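pasting for the record
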Amino acid sequence: MFMKAQAAFALSLIVGLTATSSPPGVAKSGSSPDTSHALINTCLITNDVKRLTAFYAQVLQIEPHKTGEDYVEFHTSAGTLALFSADAQEKYIPGSATAGQNHSAILEFRVGKVDEEYARLHDLVKAWVKGPTTQPWGTRSIYFRDPDGNLVDFFAPAPPPK
């Protein structure tokens, strides 16, 4: 588990460094995706694994895969969202992370219908950042915060203008 948690933490650090000028999920014009580097796992360090597990189980509608009390994974079609205990992180890699302090990354999930997700999640989510909006880069999005304050974007390609 240590190696998996260490790898998950390293990958989570990469999340904030992988932004491009292209919209989410779209390769830059004239280029193909680089298959030598694949972000497959993002790990959130938390002080309350149970609370965050319950939240993401409802939000993602995915059954979590638990490895003890300190580590949980949600497997999506594109990658894995992992949750790891701050106490365990400190034990394995001292001084490397502080739970609930992320203010520079966005967890982006492609969904089927943004407006339907907004209606479904409206009462569950306690911290809405932005309701359903069509973004200039061609996606329809909702933005909210999870119980640890991490910013989450549910997006879909914007419908064609009428």
